[in-house]
Amino acid sequence: MKKMLILVVIAMIAVPVFAEEGILIDFSLLTADINVSTSENDEDDTPNQNRQTLMDFSHVAGGSFTPQQKKFMVTSLAIRNWEVILASSSRTVQNMSLSFTREAASREHGTVMGVRVRFPTEPYNSWALIKPPFDIPAYENSEVGDDGTITPADESDGITNVKSRFESPGDGEPAFGVIKNVGVIREVKVRAYGLNFPHGLSTILVDGMGNERSIFMGYLNYDGWGELIWRNPAYMTEVRNRDIRLVPLYPFNTPFIKFGGFLIQRDAARPGGDFVTYFKDVALIYDLAVLDTERDINDEAIWNIIQTREEARKTWEMERFGQGQVLRYLEQQRQATELPFGHPDREQQ
To answer: Which is nearest to 188 in space by CA: 278, 262, 292?
Structure first.
């Protein structure tokens, strides 16, 4: 009987119970649900930004802008704000103007992200990168009010105890592009809608060191909703076969994964022209990088190393994000707003 009990315990230890599952990003949560004016003359009250992911980039704009101008320097992960970047050989004016993202109503999944890409019709390889309007920050702890006002979060307990707005709020809820404490990734799943296009789809993940990894998910040559799944061929399910190392705990950062976008590849032998698809979400199955344990001493309360490091990293991420957004804001303000010659509404102005 004692031998049998020992065998059962060994079998339980051998079974991997350390894998976690989480939704990295759910596009149904990125609907436009708040209106933020883009200029002083903007009278449209239609929702145009996503409140949860709203970001203010006015603090890196410099001193040449008035407080009134800085008030409009905001953006978010709202679906309409995502970018579609074509390969350099495909960037004609027509192809770029006809490549964009839109909210799409799905009977099965609610609101999803719709993507239209205009590939060249000539027989050569091409690709399209669908990416967020800014590098999703891993350490963004500000709070957004119902009116779109962004205020710094209360960090009296330390920045490490405050969740980023782009993380999952907990209890298995989807994240807005960031999952913390990620070790080895076992599987990646994308729920995508196919329209029988023979184009390849890859998911781009970014780790805590800024390294991008493009994971090929498969082809979109099917009809309707489907789950494209990548399984890590190097993943070891048997713990005894793993390369086990002893690493220092404090003050090393907890690893994380960020969503970097989608890459759609068109082969030269395949049809070009307009391409349409839809995305619901991206999910991960992964090992925990660090286990939550009760420690005798609160290292961070004494040394404050992680908080200082994370604050510096947050500042760097915000500056990198803001500089590009300021340039877009200036270009938007320079853009002509007059109606084209011959437009039927032009005579009424």
So the answer is: 262
Q: Encode pLDDT of 278-323 as tens digits.
A: 999 999 999 988 877 677 788 777 888 877 877 787 777 766 666 6
pLDDT for the residue 245: 67
Residue 209, classified by CB atoms within 10 Å of its CB into exposed (0-12), middle (13-18) or buried (19+), is exposed
Q: Tokens at residue 259, please? A: 């969503």
β-pair type (212-219, 273-288): unpaired
Confidence band, pLDDT 50/70/90 cuts, at residue 8: very low
Diameter of the chain measured on Cα atoms = 94
Q: CA-to-CA distance for 76 and 128, rounded, in angstroms?
A: 21
Are 112 and 279 contacting, i.e. CB atoms less than 8 angstroms apart?
A: yes
**Would you state the pLDDT for residue 246?**
65
Q: Which residues neighbour 60 within 8 Å (Cβ) at sequence distance 6 or greater?
A: 318, 319, 322, 323, 326
* Half-sphere exposure (Cβ direction) of 290: Cα atoms closer than 13 Å: 15
Transcribe 113-134 into DSSP letters.
Answer: EEEEEEE-SSSS-EEEEEE-SS
Tokens representing 27 are 């596009």
Q: Is the pLDDT of residue 192 over 70?
A: yes
Amino acid 188: pLDDT: 97
Secondary element (H or E) of residue 56: strand 55-56
